[in-house]
Amino acid sequence: MRSIITFLRRDARHFQIFFLAGFLAYGIAVLQWDAEWQRYLILFGTCLAVQTLFIRWKKLPWHSIKSAMVTGLGMSLLLKAGAPWVLALGAAVAITSKFLFRIDGKHVFNPGNLGIAAAILLTGQAWVSPGQWGSGATLVFLVGAAGCMVVLRVGRIDTSLAFLGAFAALDFARQVIYLGWEPEVWLHRMTNGALLLFTFFMITDPMTTPKAQGARIGWSIAIAVLAFLLGWKYWVNATPIWALLIVSAITPMLDRIWKGEAFRWLKSSDQAHLSVKSSPQVPSPLR
Amino acid sequence: MKTTLLLALALMAQQASAFCGFYIAKADATLFNDRSEIILVRDGQRTILTMSNDFKGDVKDFALIVPVPTVLQRDDIKVVERRVFDALDAYSSPRLVEYYDENPCQRWLYAEAAEMDMSAAPRTTSAMRREEKAAKDKGVTIEARYTVGEYDILILSAKESTGLKDWLIENGYRIPQTAHEVLDPYIKSNLKFFVVKVNLQQLSASGYNTLRPIQIRFESHKFMLPIRLGMANSNGSQDMIVHAFTRTGRVECVNYRTVKVPTDRNIPLFVKQRFGPFYKDLFARAHRREGRNTVFLEYAWNVTPSFNGMKCDPCVGPPPMPMEFEQAGADWSQQGAPTFYTRLHVRYARDQFPQDLVFQVTPNTEHFQARYVLTHPAKGELTCSEGQDYLEQLYYRRHRELEELNALTGWNVEKHRDYANEVKGRMSPGQLRKMEAPLGFPLKRPGGPSAPLMIAIVAGIALALLMIRDRSQLGAA
């Protein structure tokens, strides 16, 4: 048990993989989703395969395969399609984009986000189901708690809070203050599982958020405002996904204006830990 | 006076059950409307909404108010025949299918049958002017006024809910006291109000005894059903069946979960006579289990007239005819363009459904039907050894059917134990000894491992692999 905790704490992606898999399990076991093993396998498999190709080609460290796992799981939770090739396309676009759309040594788009958008826009045969999570109290607690653990470890809690805060405030202003709905209407909207998952597991990807904290907060608020406007004016569903895609395009610009330290999945102490020949029994320096 | 008021409120509580709007009565009539049906066609930005109801009171008391996104034109409003709903309902209802076991001692016979049991005063111009002036004073504008079929229709827009409420009350519509709470958000969302009353003259001239469904069409981004108005002063739950048609695929709810009703279950033969109550209880149980806040999928099928695949399996009613699609509003279907049919069933109550239902059209063309299976035992002599083994399996199968029935509906199956035990009467003493009076019955449904188990296994393997990988990296680096 202790070794599992040590293992999870070594890399934030371990937490992400653990929790995303947990949500998938929750969806199938509790929320009665169809267990579409074929879909999960295609998404997950394609992500790993494409990542492997790039690792070989670009001689990257093997631990980057974990990022592909996160993407694969995240897409399994969100993307649905009528044909297997659409899923494979989405997953391939997601991983490839990390290596093709690069500015200043950083990839521009959140891989899962771009993969989903590409599958929907390019084929017209894919969709996301924002309603599949419902607004169950247990889920809210689970996603919130798990999400906090992950983002705190990654250090991107500011992104989550700024986005959710801004989005919730705008929606409250419209639904409750202006339209006059009861607060529970607003609460029902805010406890949507898909929104929370987006808040804690997609927007927080440290590789595609701006490096400087101030820029990051502004960027998150911009996503919230855009998501709110798209939903209100154009009645678009799953708006945060589209808002993130659009706002991500300006991330490199924000990085040039506001400098910050680039994020690395393994902290320098971990890197050193990896580079020194040490026995696996050595406790994690993070403790 | 006080007594009268209390009485009125009590009556209103009964009346306020309707789909998009609430029925509002002009007199103390006893209304009953626990199930409404909607045909919802979505084609691009175009929505065609057909509303049917089982209004049982005096027709002169019938009134309906539905928020709509635009001022509807005369051509946007139609009255359609009730039989469109009947045809759709008959076709897409949950179904019971019968199979016959082959006799292992003889040649086998096969038959399939299906059963379906799911029935489920002319106004003067001066009066109009007075009405309009009074309306204007209250911030209510009568945008349009039509007589369509047996209905008098007004399209109202309002500046604020109190004015609208007062206007409705002054014009003889009794509306719930709490209605303004929901009217306000609709007014501010720039919605108009489609208000319907029965034109008694037209009704008697038409020769119809019942009120026909009303169909409206409009262009809007908004793809939703405003159910909140119907719940304005009702604490009870209401049922709504939505027959949705699109060009691409299934319709699903965006702000509530869309869940499939349990399907393809083997149930005891005696359910045949009580399939209606069976499905009713099954639905109630599924509704409770899912937290009372889900939308249920009962049917999803490609119904394109030119579609060569199976139209249903089994069909409980003839597939809809092109003319019926046309009447339903899916007018593209007649040209042979793809048409997908989704049947949704939602049981909603105020506390669990704070938001109106919002939908989306998906490209999901996966077929689904609510289907329950009866399997008749083999007929004839079963004295051969295969026949005796068959009887043993039949015995266990019947136990499983009883357990399934209990799990689906909550019915007490203890009194039906004979259903399984009678099979023993046909077994030879030798076969009975072989069975050795089992202590328990195999309750698990046949099939692969359960989903949670699979997940646990996969997650365990993944975690173990990751840990190994991580450790080997630490060692190798």
Write the layout of secondary structure elements.
The complex is a heterodimer of chains A (287) and B (477).
Chain A: H1 2-10, H2 12-29, H3 37-58, H4 65-78, E1 79-81, H5 84-100, E2 102-103, E3 106-107, H6 111-123, E4 126-128, H7 137-154, H8 157-178, H9 183-190, H10 193-202, H11 213-234, H12 239-248, H13 251-257, H14 268-275
Antiparallel strand pairs in A: 1-4, 2-3
Helix pairs in contact in A: 1-2, 2-4, 2-7, 3-4, 3-5, 4-6, 5-6, 7-10, 8-9, 8-11, 11-12
Chain B: H1 2-15, E1 35-43, E2 46-52, E3 63-68, E4 77-79, H2 83-92, E5 95-100, E6 113-115, H3 125-137, E7 140-148, E8 151-158, H4 161-170, H5 179-188, E9 192-198, H6 200-206, E10 214-219, E11 224-225, E12 238-246, E13 251-253, E14 257-260, E15 265-266, H7 275-289, E16 294-302, H8 322-328, E17 340-348, E18 357-361, E19 368-369, E20 371-376, H9 385-409, H10 417-424, H11 429-435, H12 451-476
Parallel strand pairs in B: 1-12, 5-20, 14-16, 15-20
Antiparallel strand pairs in B: 1-2, 2-10, 3-9, 4-10, 5-6, 7-8, 8-9, 11-18, 12-17, 13-18, 16-17, 16-19
Helix pairs in contact in B: 4-5, 9-10
Q: How does this structure look, described?
A:
The complex is a heterodimer of chains A (287) and B (477). Chain A is mainly α. Chain A has a domain at 135-287. Chain A has helices spanning 2-10, 12-29, 37-58, 65-78, 84-100, 111-123, 137-154, 157-178, 183-190, 193-202, 213-234, 239-248, 251-257, 268-275, and strands at residues 79-81, 102-103, 106-107, 126-128. In chain A, strands 1-4 form a two-stranded antiparallel sheet. Chain A has a two-stranded antiparallel sheet with strand order 2-3. In chain A, strand 2 (102-103) and strand 3 (106-107) form a beta hairpin. Chain B folds into two domains: 2-371, no CATH class; 381-435. Chain B contains twelve helices and 20 strands. Chain B has helices at residues 2-15, 83-92, 125-137, 161-170, 179-188, 200-206, 275-289, 322-328, 385-409, 417-424, 429-435, 451-476; strands at 35-43, 46-52, 63-68, 77-79, 95-100, 113-115, 140-148, 151-158, 192-198, 214-219, 224-225, 238-246, 251-253, 257-260, 265-266, 294-302, 340-348, 357-361, 368-369, 371-376. Residues 1-33, 107-122 and 439-449 of chain B have low confidence and may be disordered. At the A-B interface, helix 1, helix 2, helix 9 and helix 14 of A face helix 5, strand 14 and helix 12 of B.
